[in-house]
Design brief:
With 112 residues, the chain is mainly alpha-helical. It folds into 2 domains: 67 residues, 434 Repressor (Amino-terminal Domain); 35 residues, no CATH class. The radius of gyration is 16 Å and the shape is elongated. The protein is built from 7 helices and no strands.
Length: 112
């Protein structure tokens, strides 16, 4: 199993679209409509739907309110030691290669 697929099975989120998909799965697992989940989190249904679609036209407080009120939590942790060691070399090609292997080719949160 590739690192990218393993990460998805473990719930590792590497960008806004994956976070949105995780929020949607959690909401559906609770049996909540978008309106119910939005009310529970204190945000508008539009904000909730944008988050589920991977959009970030909201405050961090709104995003965390949704995430926390549907039973998810975000955990920041270091990457695997091997990947981190490659990134710390400072070599741009090595860094790019390590990130592509770890996250996959698409990293929509990064500028071209």
């Amino acid at each position: 199993m590739s690192q990218n697929n393993a990460g998805k099975e473990l719930g590792i989120v590497n960008g806004p679209e994956e976070l949105g998909a995780a929020v949607r799965r959690a909401r559906l697992a609770l049996g909540l409509t978008p309106e119910q989940a939005a009310e529970r989190a204190g945000v508008s249904p539009k904000t909730l739907m944008e988050l589920e679609q991977g959009a970030w036209d909201m405050t961090m407080a709104e995003a965390f309110s949704v995430i926390n009120n549907i039973g998810l939590e975000l955990v920041a942790q270091p990457m695997g030691k091997a990947v981190l060691a490659r990134i710390l070399t400072g070599n741009p090609e090595e860094v790019a290669s390590a990130l592509e292997e770890y996250y996959g080719a698409e990293r929509p949160w990064m500028f071209p």
